[in-house]
Design brief:
- The chain is an alpha+beta fold.
- It is built from ten helices and twelve strands.
- The chain folds into two domains: 8-139, no CATH class; 148-167 and 178-281, Ribonuclease H-like superfamily/Ribonuclease H (Nucleotidyltransferase, domain 5).
- It has helices at residues 8-14, 18-30, 95-106, 114-121, 125-139, 207-215, 231-236, 261-278, 283-298, 304-312, and strands spanning 47-50, 58-59, 65-66, 70-73, 79-80, 148-159, 184-191, 197-201, 218-227, 242-245, 254-255, 258-259.
- The strands form four sheets. Strands 8-7-6-9-10 form a five-stranded mixed β-sheet, with helices on both faces.
- Strand 7 (184-191) and strand 8 form a beta hairpin.
- The longest helix has 18 residues, at 261-278.
- The protein starts with 7 loop residues before the first helix and ends in a 19-residue tail after the last helix.
């Protein structure tokens, strides 16, 4: 069995103090040479480290000792740290705990619940919930430098419980919408060559709604669309380079390289994890969970340590305050 760069025992041994955690986080984000640019003004090459008088910690305004490593910009004269303008910004939780939780999330195929993090790391459930949402924010796929081309499998699914299973006094019964189901539709695109997954919470599964989700990722003129026989895709078909289908109604699930099996595998993992680990996810927060499973699916061939490095490389500019953790959705 090949050894990984990181593991829970290795991190616990390496992170003996909060100072060790800051040093490791700086190395993961900036490398051994320190910050390249100031997060306040953007100046390059003007940064220097403020070494504490005792070499380890300094007193804060409240008189408490802090091991936070502080840098200063020679251009704007402002101080900052590796936490500034990241998912860690303003955190009261130790960086040692943050790194251990990030590794645990990156190594958990079926995800990990806020209650479990709260219990293991002795923090409140509210703090654990917010922490996990911040980590999911860092898992959100970066906007593509260029739209993808080639074969992409597209399929949709519905997340949630059936209204027939609701208790008759459930408050949702009063405002129940009309239609074949009250479940939340989700569309997922899986690129055939790269195996990168891109999923979105959508209002419905009409062509008008699905088209923007596809255009967000794919260059339509270079896209070979692989779908089932859904009516919406027949409307989208004239706008793409090629459209091939499989007919599930007659038991056809593959036709050469054409199928939606990658989507089915993704949905299978997603639903097992939501049902088994989280039990319930509200529509308001569902997109962040999709971001997490997109990240895990896309990087499934990477090691846990590589996923951790990739995630920490995405933390900049993704500060998420507790008062506004709701993900952007299309409706």
């Amino acid at each position: 069995m090949s050894k990984q760069e990181f593991s829970i025992p290795k991190l616990a041994l390496e992170l003996k103090s909060e100072l060790d955690a800051y040093v490791l986080l700086e190395d993961l984000r900036w490398g051994t040479e320190g910050p390249e640019a100031c997060p306040k003004c953007g100046a390059v090459g003007r940064q220097y480290f403020l070494n504490p008088a005792n070499g380890a910690s300094r007193k804060t305004r409240t008189g408490n000792a802090s091991e936070r490593r502080v840098w200063k910009c020679g251009h704007c004269r402002k101080q900052y740290s590796v936490l500034t303008d990241t998912i860690f910004h303003g955190t009261k939780i130790s960086i040692r705990t943050w790194l251990l939780v990030i590794f645990e999330v990156c190594s958990s195929k079926n995800s990990v619940s806020a209650w479990e993090i709260s219990r293991k790391y002795e923090i409140t459930n509210e703090s654990a919930w917010h922490m996990l949402h911040r980590i999911r924010e860092a898992m959100k796929m970066e906007p593509l430098a260029g739209l993808l081309g080639g074969a992409v499998q597209v399929d949709e699914t519905w997340i949630g419980g059936e209204p027939k299973n609701w208790h008759k006094s459930d408050p949702r019964q009063a405002g129940r919408k009309q239609g074949p189901t009250d479940k939340q539709p989700v569309v997922s695109l899986v690129h055939y060559e790269t195996r990168a997954a891109h999923s979105r919470v959508v209002a419905d599964v009409t062509a008008k709604t699905l088209m923007p989700a596809i255009e967000e990722v794919m260059d339509l003129k270079r896209t070979h669309l692989h779908t089932d026989g859904g009516a919406a895709y027949k409307t989208i078909a004239p706008h793409v380079a090629a459209h091939e289908t499989v007919d599930h109604s007659v038991g056809q699930y593959t036709d050469g390289n054409v199928s939606t099996n990658l989507n089915e595998g993704y949905f299978s993992q997603l639903k097992r994890s939501l049902d088994g680990t989280h039990h319930h996810v509200s529509t308001e927060h569902l997109q962040r969970y999709l971001n997490q499973f997109d990240f895990m699916y896309t990087h499934c061939k990477a090691t846990d340590s590589q996923r951790m490095r990739t995630l920490i490389g995405n933390v900049e500019g993704r500060r998420l305050q507790y008062k506004a953790p709701v993900a952007e959705v299309d409706f």
